[in-house]
Amino acid sequence: MYYLGIDLGSSSVKAALVDAETGRPVAVCSEPETEMAIKALELGWGEQDPATWWDHSCTAIKRLLSENNIDPATVKGIGISYQMHGLVLLGKDGGRVRDSIIWCDSRAVEIGKNAFAELGEKFCTDHFLNSPANFTASKLKWVKENEPGLYGKIHKMMLPGDYIAYRLTGKINTTLSGLSEGILWDFKENNIASTLLEHFGLEPAFSPELVGTFSEQSRLSEEGAAASGLKTGTPILYRAGDQPNNALSLNIFEPGEVAATGGTSGVVYAVTDKLGTKETSRINSFAHVNYTKDRPRIGKLLNINGAGILYRWMKDTLGIASYEVMNELAEAAPIGAGGVVILPFGNGAERMLGNEMPGMHLAHVNFNMHDRRHLCRAALEGIAFAFIYGIEILMGDNMEIKVIRAGNDNLFRSRLFSNIVATLVGREIEIYDTTGAVGAARAAGLTDKSFADMASVVNKGDHISTFAPGAEKVGYQKAYGRWKEELGLRVG
User: Fold this and answer.
1) Angle between helices 415-425 and 473-490 (to 10 degrees)
2) Which of 81, 219, 334, 372 would be 245's cystine partner, CB 3.0–4.6 Å?
3) Do the Cβ atoms of 174 and 158 come closer than 8 Å?
4) Which residues contact 152 (CB under 8 A, 6 or more apart)?
5) H or E stretch including 13?
């Protein structure tokens, strides 16, 4: 018997099967072969057709079953992870009203800023834990203001993962964690964010039925089963946004536990039991997958847009064959890269910098002293220092750090990068070989009581290595100090 996990990203859909008894991965596949396109009709916009997500989900599931000779009847349940903050709109006929306005779309920034000012920072912090910002509620307000004809056709709004569940089952529902990521949940009132909806003039009836994050949310319809290759009646048992799900995948559930991601962008996702925050404008706070009113678990999310994308840019620009070669070059340069400093902020506005857009800066290069080794070292150090800067913001917001876990993605594969972060934070970093799709499949097993807890499956075989704080802390502190001085010249 198996559990199936679906991880809907903006570039691909991944599907995974795990053994229902042990939680061990059986197979993972990804669709399509090339990245899914993002439509940008104007600068700063980002849209995708939800039907494309559905098509690739079905193809991935069918491939997974066929290539591994899996009887659909042996799939006990499904877990879904998805790209956060996207807006999907359905009409009364069940069809989409327009393309989804996805997470990277910035058209609603001013709408969110105005609501934050008009409702008041204290009110938004107390009730939503966030500014309305550029999240799902603000995007729906944009549709109302700019596309009234389409707005009049709306029956329900949903998040990307809700849409996949709807196509599988024909049922329209969502989760508390999902509503919170769209700034559609009022933590103080323990209900849908009616004050924000009223402020925006949005209909509360647009919100789907609420179901538990870990629960039998719905069962596959005949249509969903026929399209996906699964069996009619198979239950959907779990659903969460990609960052909370990534944390779950790393067994991050309790206060003081931190999940770090070092992909194209960098994410630090720290769990706390405190609803209060002083950093509404620089940190996003959402209900974690195990949140309840009586036992609150909040995921504080800090994003660094300029992370792995800088390292990729550096590799391509310098014509270096691989990241492994880059890492070797970086390790051959001294701590502090001989004085070279790189600020990695060249991938749009950085929320942790107050939504400023300083761009990437390369400073203090001496043509007679520095070469590729120093540039590679400065790039890795610059990204690591951006992580440390973000972690300092979290710690200044009453966040205690007990353990840091990371997936085996591109930046944390670097021994140098991981050691810099571990040394400056003063905590070990545990590296695990897992994916969001595998995590979602395992989460279905948690709902079904097949596994006692996530630790029972994560710790048995996923752990790859642990990076301990090194002896070079003084040198890294000096280099980090120079980096912050350079940042101060460019921001604020």
Assistant:
1) 90
2) 81
3) yes
4) none
5) strand 13-19
